[in-house]
Amino acid sequence: MSSFDENDAFEGASLSARAMAALRPEADYLNELNPAQREAVELLDGPILMLAGAGTGKTKALTTRIAHLLNTGRARPNEILAVTFTNKAAREMKERVGRLLGQPAEGMPWLGTFHSICVKLLRRHAELVDLKSNFTILDTDDQLRLLKQLVQAANIDDKRWPARMLAGIIDDWKNRALTPDKVPAADAGAYNAKGVELYAQYQTRLRELNAVDFGDLLLHMVTIFQTHPDVLEQYQRWFRYILVDEYQDTNIAQYLWLRLLAGGHKNICCVGDDDQSIYGWRGAEVGNILRFEKDFPGAHVVRLEQNYRSTPHILAAASNVIRGNESRLGKELWTDKPEGEKVRLIGHWDGEEEARWIGEEIDAMQGGTRGVRPMSLDEIAILVRASHQMRAFEDRFLTIGLPYKVIGGPRFYERMEIRDAMAYFRLVVSPEDDLAFERIVNTPKRGLGDKAQQTIQRTAREHGVSLVQGARIALEQGLIKGKGGAALRELVEGLARWNAMTRGPRIEFEDDSVIDDGTAPVRYGLPEVSHIELAQIVLDESGYTAHWQNDKTPEAPGRLENLKELVNQLDNFENLQGFLEHVSLVMDNEQDSGGPKVSIMTLHAAKGLEFPAVFLPGWEDGLFPSQRSMDESGLKGLEEERRLAYVGITRAEEVCTISFAANRRVFGQWQNAMPSRFIDELPEDHVEVLTPPGLYGGGQMSAGIESRAAQANVYNSPGWKRMQARQGQYGMSQPRESRNTVIDATAVASFTLGERVFHQKFGYGGVVGIEGDKVEVEFDKAGTKKVVARFLSAKDDVPF
DNA sequence: GGCCCCTGACTTTTT
DNA sequence: GTCAGGGGCC
User: Fold this and answer.
1) Are residues A288 and A255 in contact, defined by beta-carbon separation less than 8 angstroms?
2) Once rounded to an integer, what is the mean pLDDT over residues A387-411?
3) I want to staple A56 with a disulfide (CB 3.0 to 4.6 A). Which of A25, A72, A304, A551 is the partner?
């Protein structure tokens, strides 16, 4: 996100003449649409709901609609408000609109995520909610630290009432657009009856800190719109057309925000799929999309039902499952693609066998011995319900040397080292950022424990100054002495020095002699070092880089890499401020390298993606649908789980393989489970049952599966035959023969017994055995494991 | 102040 | 079974 620029957003209104000329003739892009898409693009005025099933070309319709709005002169680029949920989606839309327009969509300042757009708006109107326009956006860590302080101050036992819980409750209220005064009495009992009180205190603290959390971005804007009709009206007029992506994921605050903005002209186009609403647990309201026609009387509803992604069998399976849901608007996906393979279903004895089998399947697919064509690992994905399921696959793939990547997981900017570095940068830019100071006073260790930190807090409070100032005063008064004191002095002086570097040398003017007493405005020239150099200086001089260099844990090299990457990212920004702004909202870490890999991710993370081959393991009742979801949310929870199943199946283009295991180790305990009830909802005619005979000693499988297995004549099914043939081919006992030639011919590295080695996942260790391309390593932390040689590097090779 | 051990939790996650 | 966070001990 570029820093807010009024001209950009409101005045630099028109596309360049070049771009106007480059707009394609209407018929051109309209002819590329199917009738439903075309309708969704051409109905420009009034409310419209585009119900876009999975794989029906919704982004195409959405971006074409924007192009059409511009092309027909209905709106200038900066008069269109287009909102998405993720930065990825926003980026993609920008790119595609740009392509349609024949120039980068720079001229669309209001295409972005809910949050980034709200930041822009809130910076303009911050004073209306008692903030300054340079407010900071807190990350979840800061938020939690703040709440912990409040909880402690209120003398609440944070054992019984964890701050995390309070954070959840407050988030929930904010998602529902409830300011402390609006929290209904029914909810007031939350968090030991102190919830609302603490919520109010928290908001006060945020205001004092000139800070907001993510929820506030929306909530403050809703408040402003509700209490300042003049401001609202200004934007209602400005945003002539509104487009919303993934409408089924909106929460109440977002819904209100949209309704307020669309209140005048009602030119709002919401795109979504009620069947893909899977974020109810974080405040999304399927109701928003189900209610659309009531909210916007006279709304047009356009259904995009032609699917361009999957084969008929896959679509039929998905449709039949989702049919089990009561509350849905109803759609039927169809395609003119050729039949393809049936959805495959297989049961396993346990989770490990499931992982083993999938590993072999992937091998075979890649080698071309399974399916109609050889597949690249990039075309294959494994989608799980819960992240702990990934482990079995990681272990297995590591052992057999199958390259994989885990998508999702902790994001780049959530990592400890990135947050620490960011806290330093924040302090350098704004020395009064107390939360940032708290984070890094003693990181790296400076010998400043609880006592010293309390002294700083107390001094700051007594003098009514920031913590950095408080620390300075405490030092002057000799309140903090010894090693800690020296280190603190170094830190405080460092911060002042780095801060000065952000401003460059002072420029003195002839007419007014400048005295920098902190009140008179001082003019500064350009900084003498670039912000990139400055960042490096800060990390080095603060001792933070050294902290990780001296760290001997296996993660340390990776963390240093991340820090390097962070500094590299600065290149895309003009200064630290701009970067900080960006990073609090954005920044994902999707770089990956080194050849094709199987993707492993959660079903949630898979939304919006597609793969030729998809594996859906772990379809067991309790795991999927998740027991917890059903316990906590009953039928609503089950329906959301079912939508998750629908999302999973519809990710597949050519082959979809569903599997379940009779036994699985859960929290260290072996448990047996019934196949998922969703399996019973798969349509027989479109499913091929691969379950080998005799695997289930009767009674393990549900009657439905058993009868289905019988009907499908398992023993004669093509899949079963193929499996037999394949097993005959190279035998189950040593199925790994083709490995090296397929994956990596250079794999057989030579290691010697006793040699120190490093492994990305397991860390450091010593070689205790060698068998062909597999090396047995006794890891310092992870125990003894057999791993493929190519995943090991000699200890000196470790990148620093 | 730092390390170690014990306890308890344990679905999904963007901004 | 694993991990994180907190308490207690050195």
Assistant:
1) yes
2) 87
3) A304
DSSP, collapsed to helix, strand or coil, labels residue A398 as helix
What separation in angstroms does the CA of A686 have from each of A321, A614, A657?
12, 16, 12
pLDDT at A708 over 60: no
Evaluate the omega torsion of the peptide bond into residue A229 and state whether it is cis, within 30 degrees of 0.
no
Cα distance between residue A198 and residue A507, in whole Å? 47
What's the pLDDT tens digit per position in A248-296?
Answer: 999 999 999 999 999 989 999 999 999 999 999 989 999 999 999 999 9
Protein residue at shortest CA distance from C1' of B8: A159
In angstroms, the CA A553 to CA A781 distance is 9
CA A176 to CA A195: how far, in whole Å?
A: 15
Residues A692/A720, Cβ–Cβ less than 8 Å: yes
Per-residue DSSP letters for A259-318? HHHHTTT--EEEEE-GGG---GGGT--HHHHHTHHHHSTT-EEEEE-B-SSS-HHHHHHH
Q: Is the CB of A175 under 7 A from strand B?
A: no
CA distance A399 to A384: 20
Sequence-distant (6+) residues with CB within 8 A of A362 are A377, A380, A402, A598, A615
Higher-pLDDT residue of A350 and A755 is A350
Q: How would residue A444 be classed by pLDDT, with cut points 50, 70 and 90? A: confident
Q: For the range A489-498, what are the long-range contacts, defined as Cβ-Cβ under 8 Å and sequence gap of 24 or more?
A: A491/A441, A491/A446, A491/A542, A492/A468, A494/A538, A494/A541, A494/A542, A495/A427, A495/A428, A495/A431, A495/A468, A496/A431, A498/A428, A498/A534, A498/A537, A498/A538, A498/A541
Confidence band of A709 (pLDDT split at 50, 70, 90)? very low
- Report the alpha-carbon distance of residue A430 to residue A741 in Å, rounded: 56
CA distance A214 to A206: 12
Q: What pLDDT, on the 0 to 100 scale, is given for residue A26? A: 63
Q: Within chain A, what is the greatest distance between any pair of CA atoms? A: 96
Round to whole Å and give the CA distance between A88 and A92.
6
Residue from A313, A248, A317 nearest A279 by CA: A248
Conformational region of residue A385, where left means phi above 0, alpha means psi within -120 to 50, and beta covers everything else: alpha
Find the mean pLDDT for residues A308-313.
95
Three-state secondary structure of A67-135: HHHHHCCCCCHHHEEEEECCHHHHHHHHHHHHHHHCCCHHHCCCEEEHHHHHHHHHHHHHHHHCCCCCC
**pLDDT score recorded for residue A328:** 87
pLDDT at A317 over 90: yes
Enumerate the nucleotides of strand B whose atoms come under 7 Å of any protein CB: 1-2, 9-15
CA-to-C1' span, A388 to B10 (A):
10
Residue A443 annotated in active site = no
Residues 157-176 of chain A sitting with CB below 7 angstroms of strand C:
158-159
Q: Distance from residue A411 (CA) to nucleotide B10 (C1'), in Å?
A: 21
Predicted confidence at residue A116, as pLDDT, reads 92
The predicted pLDDT at position A32 comes to 87
Distance A782 CA to B6 C1' (A): 21
A675 three-state secondary structure: strand
Q: Which amino acid is at A696?
A: Y
pTM of the model: 0.78
How far, CA to CA in Å, does A501 sit from each of A134, A534, A536? Answer: 20, 7, 12
